[in-house]
């Protein structure tokens, strides 16, 4: 027996409006900090600002898809939400370097606190490409290979928790693979490329299993399941190629490093650079 994917929150205007309000606040906060950076002469990339606003727009679009009955009741609409919330939206947000913007905007005391958090044992545990890939791809596997997806159809709370996991795991994976923000103990670019290659292969395999209907537990009509699998396969390829491009674009010798392979001699920062700025640049 198959059931159609049902929309969550149709009758709850507050639930539908809340994500958009949060995104508006985040976007406004980012724009204000970026404007202050420009006003004080230190500047901030307009491209990064555009990237953050694009990420917020993609997430807002994903949260509004349930307002379109044809997509809300179709499994392909669910997969489109997954792509926007778990892959494309997080990539755009991460490429905007929000942590760096905050570090360069808060007082030194606040920067030192953020630095301690980023260097904490808990962050070291999850801010690892392998751990991030497991959280992201493992979430997909649990959703589609167990009865979890069927459970989300009947539970609005569970439905939103799954989307929250997609968002958090997507941001974490994009950050540790190719994010411009500082990350603890980030491996070399070749090592991250290997992890990304494995993630691409696992994502493609899961899409193919979904298309064939093998091992998956997705109670939707076969045409919707196959259409969702195709969207997941090709849409995932686009998101992962963009992530790979962002990673390869960072593969260059950083300023202040010795030309000798493996040497790590940071450039001495100007005397007036705050600890927060120094943390960002080293």
Automatic annotation (TrEMBL):
Region named Disordered: 256-282
Membrane topology recorded in Swiss-Prot or TrEMBL: Multi-pass membrane protein
Highest taxon listed in the record's lineage: Bacteria
GO CC term (a single one): plasma membrane
Main location class: membrane
InterPro entries from the UniProt entry: Caa3_assmbl_CtaG-rel (IPR019108)
Keywords carried by this UniProt record: Cell membrane, Membrane, Transmembrane, Transmembrane helix
Keyword Transmembrane set for record: yes
Compartment(s): Cell membrane
Pfam families: Caa3_CtaG
Keyword Transport carried by entry: no
Transmembrane segment boundaries: 16-35, 47-68, 80-103, 123-145, 157-177, 189-211, 231-251
Name of protein: Cytochrome c oxidase assembly protein
Organism listed in the record: Pseudonocardia bannensis
